[in-house]
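Lab notes, practical 5.
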Amino acid sequence: MNNQDITSLLINKLNLEKAYVTGDTNHIKIIVIGNLFKDMSQVKRQQIVYTPLIKMITEKHIHAVSIMSYTPEEWKKNKKLY
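Output from the prediction step:
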């Protein structure tokens, strides 16, 4: 599964506004933006993003994941930093 496939999977499964996936199978960096993250802790946000990726992680198709999650409002405020 390539980065575009992972992006599509996350957007479709989590109903995200945007998702950006970079890196390779050793380490991928994920930035996700969606209203579902409103009023959620960072830990809960990461748990939600991991859920559709669990099979790929347990089957060692993905080794390490870095996740940054934002509501659309947080993204508009902070995206210039990335």
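Observations recorded by the TA: Strands lie at 18-23, 27-33, 64-70. The mean pLDDT is 91.
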